[in-house]
Amino acid sequence: MDTAVVKSSAVEAAIERLATFFHTQQTRQGLLARAALGRSLPEDATQRARLIREMRAETRIDGSLGGAVMPTIWRAIELMDLGHQEDQAGTLRVVGWVLNLQGKPGAYGAGCSEARHRHRVCEHYIGGFFSAAPPSQRVSPVSMPNGKVFRAEAAARFAISCLALRAALKAGFEGRPLIQQHLVSLVMLRETWTDWSGYFTPDLIVSALQPLSLAPPPHRAVLPGLAAFVAEHQAEDGTWPNADLFHTLEALLMAGTPEAQAAVRRAMPALLALQRPDGSFGGTAQQERAWIGLRALRLG
Fold this sequence. Notes:
mainly alpha; 1% strand; globular
């Protein structure tokens, strides 16, 4: 039998397992997965509206989730994923709270040292980053919604800022001066990323790929090259050395370039090997990784 047919059959079976996994999930991921598969339930529209109401009710009057940075950033993205638009009151309030984190003390790149200046990661070169917390407060380790954990302090602050930038761009705030500065900083840093094992770890490079996927011109011009750079470092088994598979797949799916899509397809064997009988990929960020996996498998 043709290996392509066998592969297609395995991918189709994996998608069916995920369809079963998401069939009764009354979650953001479940609603999105069923819609993507064309298998929405009659009650999904009502469930979507209820979920949005509940998410909005959990936010304080200032728009945050108890003042917690990561959950608030992710709540903005969740609401927009569910169709609560950026100009609607609930989302606007949450995004507004996130935007107020820009340029505050503790933002990545603030200050300078000899080593940081040499690598162009100090305030003399970059700016516009979001602050996860004051400099005196430790934020690491931090777990991203996709399950990737950043344990180094500087890495955690960089990754959180990239997620916040993703939320701001998704909400249409690309014209703000500080947002532009953040984008310019990432574009400049991209020019220094020539080594997969260099000063910036692979997972940080992948973190930057996510918001750059939503960047407007001219910043978006770096996207094909950066996606290709990530794709070039894929191992033969479909994974990436020293990079989280789901973190990387999510970024490549967002990028959507030909190189990115080809890399996602080459990751099929690794993804299939990780899938459990229930359709999920383990207990870490179970729903989000299943949603990422489904989107990746549909490209296979």
